[in-house]
Amino acid sequence: MDVKSLLSLIGQAETYFQQRERCFDNCWSTHLQLKQLDQQAAGWFYLLTQQGDALSSLDIDKPTWLDLLLAQTVTELVELVKHRTAINGSDRICLQWWSQRHNGAALIAALITLEATAKQPSTPQSLLTQELLCVIASATPVISDQFNFLHVDNIKPCIHFINQHLGKASHIWSSHFLDAETTAQNSKKLLALSLCRGTFPVNLPVLSSALLSDKSLLKQYVVQADSRLVGALINELSAHNDNAKFVLSLMAFSGYKQFIPWLIQMLTAGFLSHAAFAALHTLLGADLETQLPAKLYGEYEPESQVDLLVALKQSLSDWWILHRDEFPERILAGKPINESNIDFIWQQGNISQCEVAAYHYWCMKAEHRLTDARGFNIGGML
């Protein structure tokens, strides 16, 4: 392949990363569209890896994602990431693609060892290791239940990995650390989330403010908590304006219909309009679509249509007063949250609906690993 063709291939991959990122800002983008993008990109990634020697000889500043893609061994990949303090979207995709094609489980083990030997466990590097564990684990087909965390002094960077990706074995490790005298109380609250899966979550902890910055944790929490605990969490998070958009998304994650009137009011709340619209679409699905003015259907930036949002706010409020008793306490895409509906939503829903469905399915099935609805995925569904 000549230089011009190689540069064109890199350019196509860069365009893919941009298109993929835009999908997450568009509440009309479906999970199927995302999968089709990933399938196309997988072909480009394969071609790039086949041209590794030619790419190495190119006199250009290669993007970081390309170095990750071309790594041949776990050791090489760890060397590329261990001195970094952050990874972006394109890096995550390439790490997941690498994990699907190579030894993702060995990479996870290497990162856990890296975390265990870190001199300062609270550094940005530690936070990066935590993120990498989740990113790579979500793309790794087979993960041994016997990963050894006993040598890790600071358990928090591994907690999400334990909770989300070890399935039934997460109960074993969670119980071990809950019983250990050396485990900090905040970490025990995080671990308690795992033990509530598959049961009525009467023992969910009340979260302290120190834990409210962890978005992945909060998503796990609201899919398991009863309406009272979710309401208390929403109230505490709402006290901080910089959390506003995330608070609206948590309402959708919880599935509780009690938040729908509040979300309707937020449709005309300026910079929160888009987030409120997306949350309502996640909760109501086609039932929201039937209430939309024609020009709002499929609109990428609904917040730009102020007059139409004002009209929608009134019509949706009237519709909800008439029909709210027809819905169960918890809904997703206008349907009760149960296993059959989750499977349908995963096949047909938008990206946000699929992400929420994945968390609820993970909560229902104690043996199930959390599916990353936003991750690089060209394989099966839930």
Characterize the structure shown.
The chain has 382 residues and is mostly helical. Helices cover 60% and strands 1% of the residues. Strands 1-2 form a two-stranded antiparallel sheet. A hairpin with a 2-residue loop joins strand 1 (331-332) and strand 2 (335-336). It is globular, with a radius of gyration of 22 Å. The model has no long low-confidence stretch (mean pLDDT 82).
Which SSEs are present, and which pair or pack?
Layout: H1 3-23, H2 31-50, H3 52-56, H4 64-70, H5 74-81, H6 89-101, H7 104-116, H8 124-139, H9 156-165, H10 170-179, H11 185-195, H12 215-224, H13 227-238, H14 244-254, H15 260-265, H16 273-284, H17 286-289, H18 306-323, E1 331-332, E2 335-336, H19 339-348, H20 351-364
Helix pairs in contact: 1-2, 4-6, 5-7, 6-8, 7-8, 8-9, 9-10, 9-11, 10-11, 12-14, 12-20, 13-14, 14-16, 19-20
Short description:
Helices cover 60% and strands 1% of the residues.
